[in-house]
Amino acid sequence: MTANSEAAHFDRAIERIRRAMLWLSLAGTLVAAGWKGWEWGLGFLAGAAVSLLNFRWLHQLVAALGEGARRPRKRLVLFLSFRYLLLGLGGYVIVKFFGLNLAAGLIGLLVAAAGVILEIIYELIYARA
Predict the structure, then answer these.
(1) Which end of the chain is more exposed for a tag (fewer CB within 10 A), N or C?
(2) How many CB atoms are located within 10 Å of the residue 13 CB?
């Protein structure tokens, strides 16, 4: 496999993961809202949004560290270093001030992991020899 085809393969995988995460976020929000009420639905949506944002930030970090990438800006490195503090503070504000359900938000944080698991299953089923 050439470097270009390998990069294209990974780009397609990242796009499938993002798409799966969006669909899981939508479906999870609707199920949580229908099952336990709007507090759970919005809590799940908030957790899923944080999960999507964290996935995006991690992807940016990996791309910045990749071969042939330009040197990352100090501001980006500083921001990515404090991302968990920012995410934690955001979660605290959402739960404390908006009254959304904490358990639903924590479940929503698993959207990225679920998207990656779905991509693994896809790759196992449709793997190239």
Answers:
(1) C
(2) 15
| Interatomic CA distance for residues 31 and 54, integer angstroms | 23
Its pTM stands at: 0.79
Q: Considering only 19-23, 32-36, 91-95, which range has the smallest mean pLDDT?
A: 91-95
- In three-state secondary structure terms, 61 is helix
Please say whether the beta carbons of 34 and 98 come within 8 A: no
Calpha distance 71→68 (Å, rounded): 9
pLDDT value of position 35: 94
In this structure, are residues 21 and 55 in contact, taking their beta carbons and an 8 Å threshold?
yes
Question: How far, in Å, CA of 35 to CA of 31, rounded?
Answer: 6
